[in-house]
Amino acid sequence: MIVTELHKGQGLGNQLWSYCVCRSIADELDVPYKILGSGNFKAKDFLDIDFGDASSIDEKYTIFHEQRFYDKLLDYVASSFDDRVLSLDQGTQIEGLFQSEKYFFDNIDRLKEYIKIQEEYKNLITIPNDVCILNIRDGEYKRYKRFNLPKSYWVNAMNSMKHKYGIKKFMVVTDDHDYAKALFPDIKIVKSGISESYIALHNTSFLIVSNSTFSYFPIKTKGEKPVVIAPKYFARFNDKLDKWASPANIYKDWLWLDRDGKLYTYDVCIEEVEELDFMYKNEYYILTNQEAINKKNLIYYIPASVKKKLKLILSKVFPRNFG
Q: Concatenated DSSP letters for 239-294?
C-alpha cells in the first residue's frame, strides 16, 4: 500500500498533487493506496475523489521523502521527478511536493479518473469561448518579491492572446480580490470562492496562469485542451539568471512567457529544464535534508489570530503589497 496525507494549511493545488501522485504511483506498482487526512481536503463540497483503502487505520508506515535540491544562486529549494518511487515497498507513506508530470508515467488521462467535478457544480460558472481568464494568485505571494509576478507579465500575456488568438475579452479568477482590482480596475472578477475559481478555470478555453499549481488540475482534466500561457522559469520569473526554479514545474502543451513578452513552446523549454535537472542530480547543488526543509522562520511563531488580523489590515491599506 502507498499512502499520503493531506495536511492542514496545504493549498488545494498541493493537496491534489499529493493525492493524484499517490494514486498514480500505486497504479504503476499495482498496489492499493490510501489518503490520510481526508477531513482536511479543501474541495470536498464540489470534487469527488476516492480516498482509497479505509482499512488498517492504525498501521505504521515507512516515510519516503521526495528528493529536493537547494540552489544557492536562486536561494530556492527545487524538486524534480524522483525515480525511486518505482522501487517503493508496500506500507510506504510518501511526503514531498510531487509536482512533476512524470509522476503520471505518460498517462495524463488518469487524472480524469482520479478527479471528478460533482454534477451540480459542473456548470456553476460558464465562460464564453471568446473570453480569456487571468488566474491572478497573490495573497501570501506578495511577501516574496522574487516570486510575485509583475503587472507586466499579465499585460504582455494579454497582448499575446490578442495578437495570436484574437482574444479581446478578459476576466479574472483570484484569491486576492483587492490586489486584482488594484492591478486591473476595469476587468471583471469572477465571484470569489474556491469552487467558483476551480470551475471557471475548468470551463475556460483561454487562460493566463500564475506560478501557482492551483490551476493545473482544472486545466488538465478538461475534455479539450485549452490555450494556456504560463510564466517562464515559474517561481523565478523575475530573476535575471533566466533559470527555471524547479524542474518539476514544466507542463506539456502550455506556452511559456518570458520577461520580454516572448512566448516559448514546451519543446523549447524542456531542453533547458532537463539540463538543470541533470545538474541538480549530478553536480554541485546540495540535496536538502528534511530538517532543513522544515526549518521555520520567525513569522511561524506569531499567533495565527494576530497574523490574520494584521494581514487583513495591510491588504486593505496596501492591496498591491500585502495579502
A: -TT---S-TT---TT-EEE-TTS-EE-HHHHHHHHHHHHHHHHHSSPEEPPHHHHH
Q: Does an H or E element contain 79, and which?
A: strand 76-79
Query: Strands 2-5 and 33-36: what pairing?
Result: parallel
- Of 112, 99, 123, 77, nearest in space to 11 by CA: 99
Helix (H, G, I), strand (E, B) or coil at 66: coil
Grid cell digits, residue 1: 500500500
Q: How far apart are CA 68 and CA 82, in angstroms?
A: 9
Distance (Å) of CA 93 to CA 16, 30, 166, 312, 317: 16, 16, 48, 37, 44
Distances (CA, A) of 128 to 40, 116, 121, 193, 255: 33, 22, 17, 20, 21
Cell triple for residue 17? Answer: 498533487
Q: Could you read off the pLDDT of 109-155 as tens digits, one per residue?
A: 999 999 999 999 999 999 999 999 999 986 555 556 677 899 999 99
Closest to 50 in 3D by CA, of 59, 41, 58: 41
Under 8 Å between Cβ of 41 and 120? no
Residue 35 corresponds to which cell in the numbers above? 489518503
Strand partners, 33: 2
DSSP 3-state of 28? helix
Contacts of 236 (CB under 8 A, 6+ apart): 74, 76, 146, 147, 243, 244, 245
The cell for 77 is 529549494
pTM: 0.87
Rounded to an integer, what distance in angstroms lies between the CA atom of residue 49 and that of residue 37? 13
Amino acid identity of residue 206, one-letter, is F
End-to-end CA distance of the chain: 40
CB 137 within 8 A of CB 174: yes
* 14 sits in which H/E element: helix 12-29
- How far from the centroid of its chain's Cα atoms is residue 33's Cα? 23
